[in-house]
Amino acid sequence: MKLEFRKIVLLFILLVNLCACKEVPTKKNISKPNVIYILADDLGYGELGVYGQEKIQTPNIDALANSGMLFKQHYSGAPVCAPSRYMLMTGKHAGHARIRGNDEWAERGDVWNFEAVINDPNLEGQRPILNTTETIGKVMQKAGYKTAIVGKWGLGAPLTEGIPTKSGFDFFYGYNCQRQAHQLYPKHLWKNDEKEWLNNDLIAPGTKLDKGTDPMDIASYSKYEQVDYAPAKMQTEVLNFIEENKEQPFFMYYATPLPHLPLQVPHKYIEKYVELFGDESPYLGDKGYFPNRYPHAAYAGMISYLDDQVGEIVAKLKELNLYENTIVVFTSDNGPSYLGGVDAEFFNSARPFNNNFGHTKGFTYEGGIRVPMIASWPGKIKAGSTTNHISAFWDVMPTLGELVNADVPQDIDGISFLPTLLGTEKQQNHDFLYWEFPAQKGQQAVRMGNWKAVRKNIFNGNMTLELYNLENDPFETTDVALKFPQIVSKIETIMKNEHTTAAIDKFKIKQLGD
Q1: Alpha-carbon distance 244 to 229, whole Å?
Q2: Predicted local confidence at residue 210, as pLDDT
């Protein structure tokens, strides 16, 4: 009896000691978390409910924000796709980057001929990044992570050194090429370095309604909705990857093509918003995009489709008991489009910024580069929190590097915002953020505190800065450059110092000395 009592006492003491030794989780002693980084395509700052959207329903993304942290001052890497993704992958801003704009590498041939591209992968994809480029994928691989990208790549054509599987990703599924993503029912996608043929006919972007059809009849648009919807195929691969790697740390970069044009989404999502919005004028197509009977309803439906996918991902994490050890980040690659039937004014897509052409996608005003960002990690990131920390895409690499205790290159421009996420340490802040964009007549921009400077029409010889105080003028309507010459001078120095000569001729700006 005494022996049994002694065993019970010893067991009790052992349990007490084990409980006493358990540490409070910090970034230094937590098990390696899984990371899912969801990058929407052309989603505006104001197109989510938690950012003030009033017409499009996004309950799952809103719930993600309510479970984590909402960033109010986060910026994309650039105002268009490819360079923004390059800044994300490399931790560098545009003044130091290799890829500074969209480059279709057109000297290869007729790269916009969709029928020719089906048979010749040499015509597909964009100019490649170098395979020596240090990417987030490589950083995470070195930290012991299984890595994947699902969605749109846009940083290296299929038969080049710049494909995802040579750039730090163990698995790739989706569009290699941005141009191919101009059809959401494509003829093929890529799985690693192999084409996967889909059960769709080739309907080349820009294909108009058949002659003699009634543009008010929904049946006239039937050919634009086919069998294999690319976002659905991608979602399956995302969920499979999570399932297959549930026993090891993984990094999923989900570069969804939604809600980038064309206006294509399964019809039930359109019906939902037709009921809410009522009838509307059809969009008959132009500039390489498909017609759509209900353009407002289709666009809203695409965002709701993406929202449902976010909900499915969270549900899968909970099903596999991975939810509490997974950080989920949701953001967008640039501001909303102004083409192809998108109506930024109707949705107030860039709210509270300017929705007009010249201030959204393709431009370095706030509507073109300020993007939503949400980060959720139950028990680690405070639920329902918001932050005004000023950050940009080039901060993601050092943030993840610090999170997983991995080295990142010394020559990057980013600063980790992990202290902001965890609320554990003093956050280092940027002195400024810098952009340049060798398109739309040439642009530069700097964010410095509440000051925002924009230089546009550089190709036309303009070197004058516009200056705005974003605290009281987020719409960027009142240029105060003449009132604050010292601020202008300081930003001019920043622009001069941060620009380096582009390695690729297409991105050189001779007016800046290239």
Answers
A1: 23
A2: 96
45-76 burial, b if ≥16 CB within 10 A, otherwise e? Answer: bbbbbbbebebbbbebbbbbbebbbbbebbbb
Pairing state between β 34-40 and 326-332: parallel
pLDDT at 83 over 80: yes
* Identity of the amino acid at 256: T
pLDDT in tens, 466-496: 999 999 999 999 999 999 999 999 999 999 9
> Tens digit of pLDDT for each residue in 407-439?
999 999 999 999 999 998 799 999 999 999 999
Rounded to whole angstroms, the Cα distance separating 70 from 367 reads 18
Cβ–Cβ < 8 Å for 323, 317: yes
Q: Could you give the percent of the chain with pLDDT greater than 90?
A: 93
Query: What pairs with residue 146 in β-bridges?
Result: 250
Under DSSP, is residue 468 helix (H, G, I), strand (E, B) or coil? strand
DSSP labels, 201-223:
----TTPPPPTT--TT-GGGGGG
Instruction: Give the tokens for residue 39.
Output: 């990058």
Q: Are 41 and 257 in contact (CB under 8 A)?
A: yes
Total residue count of the chain as it appears in this document: 514
What phi and psi values does residue 40 have, to the nearest 5 degrees?
-70, 160
Closest CA to 447 of 418, 482, 415, 490: 490
Contacts of 97 (CB under 8 A, 6+ apart): 83, 86, 87, 90
> Tokens 């139950």 map to which residue?
378
d(Cα 461, Cα 440) in Å, to the nearest integer? 13
Task: Please say whether the structural domain 432-514 has been given the CATH code 3.30.1120.10.
Answer: yes
Closest CA to 406 of 169, 57, 220, 144: 144
Give the whole-angstrom CA distance, residue 171 versus residue 508: 33
How far apart are the C-alpha atoms of 418 and 423, rounded to whole Å? Answer: 8
Q: Which CATH architecture has domain 33-430?
A: 3-Layer(aba) Sandwich (3.40)
Enumerate the H helices of 34-102 as residue ranges: 59-66, 81-90
Question: Does residue 109 carry a pLDDT above 80?
Answer: yes
Helix (H) or strand (E) holding 175: strand 171-175
Domain ranges (residues) in the chain: 33-430, 432-514
Report residue 172 as tokens.
Answer: 């790739």
Tell me how far apart the alpha carbons of residues 286 and 307 are, in angstroms, rounded to a whole number.
28
Which CA distances in Å does 180 have to 218, 310, 335, 374? 25, 24, 20, 28
User: Quick one: 447 exposed, middle or buried, by C-beta within 10 A (0-12, 13-18, 19+)?
Assistant: buried
Task: State yes or no: pLDDT of 12 exceeds 80.
Answer: no
Q: CA 163 → CA 124, 172, 417, 511, distances in Å?
A: 12, 9, 29, 33
Angle CA 226–175–503, to nearest 5:
150
